[in-house]
Amino acid sequence: MATAAVLLGSACSNEPAKDDTPQVATLSSTGATPGAPASATADRPRERLDTTPEEFEAMLKPYYKCINEQGAKNKHEWGNRKPTEGEIKKLEKADRFCNPRFFPLPPWEKDPANPEAKDFARDVVKCLKGKGIRYVAVGGNGVDIELGGEQNDMDSIRRGLDLMPECERDTAARK
Question: How far apart (Å, rounded) are the C-alpha atoms in residues 6 and 116?
């Protein structure tokens, strides 16, 4: 049986070293991730739980600019055509350079650098289950949320995606 799951979570997979400095998380927090090297995150925008697609696209402008400055084209510039192997390799190389400098950080509530992110994910899963989502779990990294389970249950995926923002807002409001 094929396993299919929808993973929702951060774009970053590297956990920066944690420090013991107390942090205050808000829905509108921006800036560097605590414990991460300042040079890598000082200018990176941070998503919020309520970031709109338009706002996220605007946050990507410095990232896209960096990609272009590295001699690559971003996926939007390819249009509907299939990129060449050389274009893909250029983009991958540019992304390794640009992503840690300019790609938006995830919302603080979903950031692996946040010591409370795992609690947030567990509470969102609890909320979704309370709303009748059958196949939902915290992902293997403790921060992402998986919908559909091994059953690839489309109802859990669709309804879970629809209810996720509400559960995230409710969970954040209780913290």
Answer: 22
What the block records as the tokens of 96 is 């390794």
> Which amino acid belongs to residue 34?
P
Angle between helices 61-69 and 85-102 (to 10 degrees): 130
The reported pTM is 0.67
CB 67 within 8 A of CB 95: yes
Q: What is the pLDDT of residues 143-162, one digit of tens each?
A: 999 999 888 899 999 999 99
- pLDDT at res. 2: 37
How far does CA 67 lie from the centroid of its chain?
Answer: 19
Q: What is the pLDDT of residue 42?
A: 58
Q: Which residue has the tokens 């990176």?
A: 44
The token pair at 144 is: 């992402």
Q: How long, in residues, is the chain?
A: 175
Q: d(Cα 122, Cα 135) in Å, to the nearest integer?
A: 14
Q: Are 45 and 59 in contact (CB under 8 A)?
A: yes
Residue that the structure tokens 């879970």 belong to: 160
Q: Are 10 and 70 in contact (CB under 8 A)?
A: no
- Dig out the tokens for 59 from the structure: 């946050």
